Amino acid sequence: MTGKNKEFTEKLVARIRAEQMSRWKGMPTSTLTRVHTLFDCSVRRVYLKTSADDETFRHVLARDADKVRHIMDWLVSAIMEDAHWLAKTDREGRPKKIMKCGTIDALAREADAWTKLQRNRKKVVALDPAEEEMFMDLGDGWRMVRMKTATALDRESGFMQHCVGDGAYDGMLRDPTMRLVSLRDHKNEPHVTVEMDLEKNRLIQVWGKANTIPKAEYAELMRPFFKRHGYWMKRMNGVDLFLFDPEGGMHVLDELKEGVVLRAIENVNEELLELLPARLTVEEGISLASVDLRPRLRRGISGIAVNGPADLKWANVDILPARHGFRGDIDLSGSNLRGMEDGFRCHGMLKLSANDNLRKLPYRMVVRGDLLIRDTPIAALPEDLSVGGDLTIRGTQIRKVPASVRVGGRVTFSRL
């Protein structure tokens, strides 16, 4: 791997590590330090060893997203249980069980073996009613229940045959921004388990029994819950199978019809983009981070109209057309953007940061919200630029803001 490729890989792996570590914010610092160390000698080590080039690595990360989460659940559970294999280390103190794995698939197989072993060991435990509480009444005896203790998570894990128990998720019980909830019937038996981020109003994971896709009948029962608490996508091999509309209705990916309105789409990759219909509206935003968009940029992104924010960080975009379909904020940080067509309009905030190939802005460019230009080799601003909000320029070759540039808010200008 060249030095440039290694630097790129390190940046993306650091993002993955930060995302994974944020899942266990309630854990003691000493435990988080051990999780950090195990991540570095497993996931980080493998990626630094196997990533060939920037283009390929973007695809690999999208494909491996679910596997990495599964691996991290295994590692955290091993720490919480003080698994015996953690003590069997090499000369540098790294667990041999991890070091023998040369690929993400090999690490995922170890995590699968652990999951299978845990299923065989688990027994449904008795539970004090105070260890759970009503989260949302769905009617007809169905409800969403919040699990409040480690014992409650163990009971859920025993019924559902997945890894929410055994300590891997206990830290979330101490995090006020997180919730672990369960769909229960009139007998209080679980059918779907949900990991929630209350702060962002997002459903991070939704599991059926044994980490399978929840049955459609359960998704329909949970419609009021989905409508109130964001949206979720059950992923399989890096592709999102289910998407949700603003009313909480579930849509199967390969049955989406033209003209459908969806609430939001996260974690888009090239495979998912190919499956989306020709006409589609996304109300609350889309994440296209690290996606190769070049074949789909002639008349918008595959006919998608996005009313909310568009996350294009680290995306492969080249030239962004004036008719792009994004009607809200656009974040192009770290993308390989070379330019934008004349007359380009952004209807919200536009963020241009660390765009190493972007050397000029287009004529008649209009940004209705704030415009941030940072650490990007743009030499000068076009004199007909119009910014409705604040204009912030930092760490560029721009030496002045022309008097003819129209700015509705404040101008912050710094060479550093």
Record the SSE blueprint.
Layout: H1 3-21, H2 29-50, H3 54-81, H4 96-99, H5 104-121, E1 132-139, E2 142-147, H6 150-160, E3 178-184, E4 190-197, E5 202-207, H7 216-221, H8 223-228, E6 235-236, E7 239-240, E8 242-244, E9 250-252, E10 260-262, H9 270-275, E11 280-282, E12 286-287, E13 304-306, E14 310-311, E15 319-320, E16 330-331, E17 339-340, E18 345-346, E19 350-353, E20 366-367, E21 371-374, E22 386-387, E23 391-394, E24 406-407, E25 411-414
Parallel strand pairs: 10-11, 11-13, 12-14, 14-16, 15-17, 16-19, 18-20, 19-21, 20-22, 21-23, 22-24, 23-25
Antiparallel strand pairs: 1-2, 2-3, 3-4, 4-5, 6-7, 8-9
Helix pairs in contact: 1-2, 1-3, 2-3, 3-5
